[in-house]
Amino acid sequence: MTQSLIEQIGIDYPIIQGAMSWVATPSLAAAVSNAGGLGMLGSGHEPSEVIRKAIKETKEMTDKPFGVNVLLLSPYVDDVVDVVCEENIKVVTTGAGTPGKYMKRFKEAGVTVIPVVASVALARRMEKEGADAIICEGMEAGGHIGKLTTMTLVPQVVDAVDIPVIVAGGIADGRGMAAAMFLGAAAVQLGTRFVVAHESIAHDTFKQRIIKARDIDTVVTGQITGHPVRVLRNKLTREYLKVEKEMSSDEHPDFSRLEALAKGALRKAVVEGDKHGGSFMAGQIAGLVNKEQSCHDIIQELMSEYDELVSHPKIF
Amino acid sequence: MTTFEQIQEIIVDQLDKEESEVQLDTNFRDELEADSLDLFQIINDIEDEFDIKIESEEGLNTVKDLVEYVEKQQEA
């Protein structure tokens, strides 16, 4: 199964870079693909022409396959899907909804469709809709998260579907990768570790916050809104969680106060490096990420750690 | 059991509600505090229970919507 998925995509190693908002730009995606993994471009809420430009830029930097993450909630989603198909993108990952409506179009264009899921029911639904594989993401991950941990979610999803499962959430080294493979993964997706790559455009403040982060330094905001998000804690998250707590007793909470706090916070983190006001999305594994490296070195290190573990397993 | 009763049971089980809280005109998204994972679980369970396929959850908001969808699928 592992071979067939990475062969189908045409990559050397079963390592996918997460499509982190504002961070998954052409320079990072191209570097990951050039290093033998699968680079991903984020599309967020950008209009299709911005995405076409990013795709063209990426193509100038790599002749290897790379993918695009399509945010199904985006107001421009129809046009984005057209651009992705026209530009012969090989892999699409999807978030925030079900891609069923676009499945026929993707298949006709030869796109491998990989939705992100956070439960068994959602995984089964995606398989029925014709997904080629799924990314199963545990709540250890940074950014928008579900409820289950990677350790518990993955084996249950692996048992429930017949398509390859890519594991995300909590992986930053060869040990995590090996663990995921033993749980049944066909590949792994890493986000936080690639935020600190040399080729990542994330502001140095963001990179340093991840490098200095310890195990307990992420918090989950937005539980009350039904859209929980994992971020590194700072002044913004303290204020945000305080407002959430105040609202928890309201029968009809007014989320506009929270929206005002969060407005533009992601850009402030990634682009401006605003230490106090930015939303620094990172996974719980940030504590393990302690150096800035090239994507090539990250992938080679992961693979050598992984190979060492699986060829010389420590038997108790 | 009627279609409504079967669907009511699925929702009651998934969301830990009382039967009285799950009526035909209940909006299961807003009134029952179902999050998106609950929603897909309910759809999944209905698909299994009635051996049908729910193409899209768009437009399905109330318990009545679900009952009508299922009955239409079964006639087809």
UniProtKB/TrEMBL annotation, chain A:
Keywords (A to Z) from UniProt: Flavoprotein, FMN, Oxidoreductase
InterPro entries linked to this entry = Aldolase_TIM, Enoyl_ACP_red-II_put, NMO
Which Pfam families does this entry report, sorted A to Z? NMO (PF03060)
Domain of life of the organism encoding this protein: Bacteria
Task: Fetch the CDD domains from UniProt.
Answer: NPD_like (cd04730)
Query: Cross-referenced PANTHER family, in alphabetical order?
Result: 2-NITROPROPANE DIOXYGENASE, 2-NITROPROPANE DIOXYGENASE-LIKE PROTEIN
Q: Enumerate the NCBIfam families for this protein.
A: enACPred_II (TIGR03151)
Please identify the protein, giving its name as recorded.
Probable nitronate monooxygenase
Give the organism's phylogenetic lineage. Bacteria, Bacillati, Bacillota, Bacilli, Lactobacillales
Automatic annotation (TrEMBL), chain B:
Query: What does UniProt say on post-translational modification here?
Result: 4'-phosphopantetheine is transferred from CoA to a specific serine of apo-ACP by AcpS. This modification is essential for activity because fatty acids are bound in thioester linkage to the sulfhydryl of the prosthetic group.
Phosphoprotein as a keyword of this entry, yes or no, is: yes
Q: Tell me the route in metabolism or biology where this protein functions.
A: Lipid metabolism; fatty acid biosynthesis
The family database entries (Gene3D superfamilies) matched by this protein are listed as: ACP-like
The PTM O-(pantetheine 4'-phosphoryl)serine maps to 36
Alphabetized UniProt keyword annotations: Cytoplasm, Fatty acid biosynthesis, Fatty acid metabolism, Lipid biosynthesis, Lipid metabolism, Phosphopantetheine, Phosphoprotein
InterPro entries per the UniProt record, alphabetical: ACP, ACP-like_sf, PP-bd_ACP
Subcellular location(s): the record lists: Cytoplasm
GO MF terms, alphabetically ordered: acyl binding; acyl carrier activity
GO cellular-component terms in the record? cytosol; membrane
Task: Using the record's annotation, list all stretches that form the Carrier domain.
Answer: 1-74
Q: Which GO terms describe its biological process?
A: lipid A biosynthetic process
Cleaved signal peptide residues: none
The record's section on NCBIfam families has: PRK00982.1-2, PRK00982.1-4
UniProt name for this protein: Acyl carrier protein
